[in-house]
Amino acid sequence: MDAVWLTPWYPSPMADGGYDVADYRGIDPRFGTLADADALLAEAHALGLRVVVDLVANHTSEQHPWFRAALAAGPGSPERERYFFRDGRADGEEPPNDWVSAFGGPAWTRVREADGRPGQWYLHLFAPEQPDLDWTHPGVGDDFDAILRFWLDRGIDGIRVDAAPAMAKVPGLPDAGHGPGASFESRTWVGNPHWDVEEVHDILRRWRRIGDSYDGDRVFVTEAVVNGPERLSRYVRPDEMHTSFNFDYLTCPWDAARLRSVIDASLAALAPVGAPATWVLSSHDETRHATRFGRADTSATTGAGAPADPGPADPALGLRRARAAALLTLALPGSAYVYQGEELGLPEVEDLPEELLQDPTWERSGHTVRGRDGCRVPLPWEGDRPPFGFTAPGVAPWLPQPAGWGPLTVAAQRADPGSTLNLYRSALRLRRRVTATAGNDLEWLDAGDGVLAFQRGRSFRCLVNLTASSRPLAGWGEVLLASAPCDDLLPPDTAVWVAAPG
Ligand code: NOJ
């Protein structure tokens, strides 16, 4: 099954790329109308594509009518109970607890009350423009049931649950024990009072029941950056979500032993709950892998915890590895996510002018961490100058495309048999044939240190050379697809798919 996942398309002030939703039942005019959404669903379905939309339920926009009403209604009002409004500590001067925002700084902002004086604080685990909802308020769950049904009734095939581990908080909102200047390291947290709290699973089960009450195959995906594969597997128990993004794989460095151990751990953790694995190399939140694989440190860290200067990247090396990584990813059992533009080998845009940066991380880090805009630059479709067919000529997209992206356009790559676009197309076509017969098993084969080699089914093999020297290919089988030219040797940073002999 193939599907398109759309990041939030709802009306939004865009304080966080649309993850600040002002109306859950509409389409932002920048993107179109509800009628356009219906047309998109119909066209995708006619092409055999499913459509998954983002559901952002941990927080709303500060412009959402619920939050506007809560601000206006004042302390102690029922309107404020939908969110986390609390009095501050130290005579109101200090935040109510030590929780931190994913974009840096404290997770609390103080409001001015109707009399103009500083008053209560409200919780936002992300930007101040994204106040957290209190899911213990019955109205919140009821409204989201209705929102989910609204979109399922319109024909969406699934949802991607944003920031799932954030949706429940330990009652009383106790300190997390974060030290001064702590950053949002949710992959290391154990027993945290605002992340991966047990009651999150009640919400996921509630939505799954709704999804299951619809006909057809509805697929629910969570975004859950938690402490390791075992914690993650809890989000995909049989009555919860169908799949979850695999952040351990997404952030793994270009290193054979590390990749193998992440792949093994992912498969082992999911086996007991019977959920399929997912594999993803890039997203709208991470540095594009064609760039990070060309750096000295090939792991991914963005957001508030990212280094201010990740160091220079070798673009040719990064792209070579990215192409090999694509063949590795698309060979693994389970579902693979392709982030728009990776099929063109797009690099991170690292030189966006500071005044155009939109990611809240930039402001919240005191202009030290640039954030995620560099992976969100719109796709180049055709032509030799911006906007490369993404918008009408002369209409600037929300972030500028590099002038030199002409050779990377879809049109240019279509015409080039060796392009990254054609590598992805061949791989996806072949994958459909191969996975139809290969089952879910994966058997590691010994190809020496630094080379990943595995077999699936009776004859499909994938080999990836992560060493600095070429390795013999003789005896491994007939090459079906290669990420770079190879004869009887597998060059460094190259992957091949082969059909085993016999
Ligand atoms: C995760 C989304 O992927 C990210 O883009 C967003 O900033 C946060 N959740 C907050 O909604």
Notable traits:
five-stranded parallel sheet, binds 1-deoxynojirimycin, 502 residues, Oligo-1,6-glucosidase, domain 2, 2 domains, 25% helix, five-stranded antiparallel sheet, alpha/beta
Could you please describe the fold and organization of this structure?
- With 502 residues, the protein is α/β, with parallel strands linked by helices.
- The chain has two domains: 293 residues, Alpha-Beta Barrel (TIM Barrel); 59 residues, Oligo-1,6-glucosidase, domain 2, CATH 3.90.400.10.
- It is 25% helix and 14% strand.
- The chain contains twelve helices and 17 strands.
- Strands 1-2-6-7-8 form a five-stranded parallel beta sheet, with helices on one face. Strands 11-12-13-17-15 form a five-stranded antiparallel beta sheet. Strands 3-5-4 form a three-stranded antiparallel beta sheet, with no helix packed on it.
- Helix 1 links the parallel strand 1 and strand 2.
- Helix 9 packs parallel to helix 12.
- The radius of gyration is 23 Å and the shape is globular.
- The model has no long low-confidence stretch (mean pLDDT 95).
- The structure holds 1-deoxynojirimycin.
- 1-deoxynojirimycin binds next to loops.
Stretches where pLDDT falls below 50 for ≥5 residues?
Answer: none
Main β-sheet description: 5 strands, parallel
Number of domains: 2
Small molecules bound: 1-deoxynojirimycin
The CATH architecture assignment of the largest domain turns out to be: Alpha-Beta Barrel
Identify the CATH class of the largest domain: Alpha Beta
Task: Give the H and E element order.
Answer: EHEHEEEHEHEHEHHEHHEHHHEEEEEEE
Approximate shape: globular
Task: Give the strand content.
Answer: 5-15%
How many H/I helices?
Answer: 12
CATH superfamily descriptor of the largest domain: Glycosidases
Strand order of the largest sheet: 1-2-6-7-8
